[in-house]
Write a structure and sequence with these properties.
Layout: H1 19-31, H2 42-79, H3 82-86, H4 90-94, H5 98-123, H6 129-138
Helix pairs in contact: 1-2
């Protein structure tokens, strides 16, 4: 009778992973590719990495659209109340219609902000306590300066 040759112990094969353990590794890799075990095949790794980046992109895009929808709902809710009837132009400033309207409001906002900063720079940025004390000690009259408020409305 012929018997089977003895197994070669020099070429020990790594233990085979089950489908469940490979799926678990793939999900861990999909969640965070930098840590944990990587899939064995390059094609699987690249596919999982691409799915990860595409899903993150889609999530943040949907999040952005949800923010726009919430702002639109808020503007509509304010416009439908008594406040909206009293201040009817506020809806245009909050959510201007069209591309030109948005660009116009943005340009107006930028010019106003730039002008506010220039006005503050010309008037001065604060009190000089040492100069005030010195002038009071010398008996000189204090020069009244007109100053704009320190807080910015933006």
């Amino acid at each position: 009778m012929a018997t089977a040759p003895p197994p070669n112990t020099d070429l020990a094969l790594p233990p085979q992973k089950t489908k469940l353990s490979r799926a678990s590794d793939s999900i861990k890799y999909l969640y965070d590719p930098t840590t944990g075990p990587q899939p064995d095949r390059f094609r699987t790794r690249s596919l999982l990495r691409s799915v990860r980046y595409i899903s993150i992109f889609i999530f943040w895009r949907l999040f952005r659209y949800a923010k726009y929808a919430a702002m639109g709902a808020l503007a509509t809710a304010v416009a439908g109340t008594a406040i909206g009837s009293v201040v009817s132009g506020a809806a245009f400033v909050i959510a201007p219609t069209g591309i030109l309207g948005g660009a116009g409001v943005g340009l107006l906002w930028a010019v106003g902000k730039f002008g506010w900063r220039r006005a503050r720079a010309r008037v001065g940025r604060g009190e000089d306590a040492r100069r005030d004390e010195r002038e009071d000690a010398e008996g000189e009259e204090e020069v009244k300066e007109v100053r704009v408020p320190r807080t910015e409305p933006w």
